[in-house]
Design a protein that fits this description.
OB fold (Dihydrolipoamide Acetyltransferase, E2P), 186 residues, five-stranded antiparallel β-sheet, SH3 type barrels, mainly beta, six-stranded antiparallel β-sheet, 3 domains
Length: 186
């Protein structure tokens, strides 16, 4: 059992026979009463996302999840193919398990695969990934201070709003949690 205040983004716990992964964690303390912890969690079996609320002293059952470093290879109609970084064994994972993360995949991206009792449950992406801009509107010089964005398509097909000064071929860093532009990469 682990205390609810020990949960952080990415942590996995078991409750009511289901495995839950924490997406967002927020601790709220008002006045003299006990605090409340609100966590946005994803059911690793069904993929649904929900908001759960606990009092500060609550405890949940820790789930022992194995984490495997894998390399993304390619996606076909209904599965995603990976290579284990230790044994170099290639395997596939059903696409419906990781459908929210697939748009951020690009060739040779290193990912952490979450496995529970030899069954893949999901993936942990790096917080930010560099992508090359494949298609966007014309760039405008001098607009480095304004907060105006334009649509851009990355090398892997991901659509991101980027600043006006970016152009085709630029390497940009994208936050994989929100899908937003972070900065231009060097």
């Amino acid at each position: 059992m682990i205390g609810i205040t020990e949960l952080r983004n990415g942590a996995v716990f078991e409750e009511e026979g289901q495995l839950w992964q924490v997406l967002e964690y927020e601790h709220i303390k008002m006045g003299r009463g006990s605090g409340t912890v609100k966590v946005q969690v994803r059911n690793l079996n069904s993929g649904s996302v929900t908001l759960k609320s606990y009092i500060t002293g609550a405890r949940v059952q820790d789930a022992h999840i194995d984490k495997k470093k894998v390399n993304y290879l390619y996606k076909d109609a209904d599965s995603v193919h990976f290579m284990d970084m230790v044994s170099y064994e290639q395997f596939e994972v059903p696409a419906n398990i990781i459908k929210l993360e697939i748009p951020y995949f690009k060739e040779n991206l290193e990912i952490v695969l979450l496995v529970y009792k030899d069954k893949p449950l999901g993936v942990e992406l790096p917080r930010a990934v560099d992508y090359r801009i494949a298609e966007t509107g014309p760039s405008e010089k001098g607009n480095t201070v304004s907060n105006v964005f334009k649509a851009a398509t990355m090398e892997n097909g991901l659509n991101v709003q980027v600043p006006l000064f970016t152009k085709v071929g630029d390497l940009v860093k994208v936050d994989t949690r929100s899908g937003k532009y972070l900065e231009r990469s060097k």
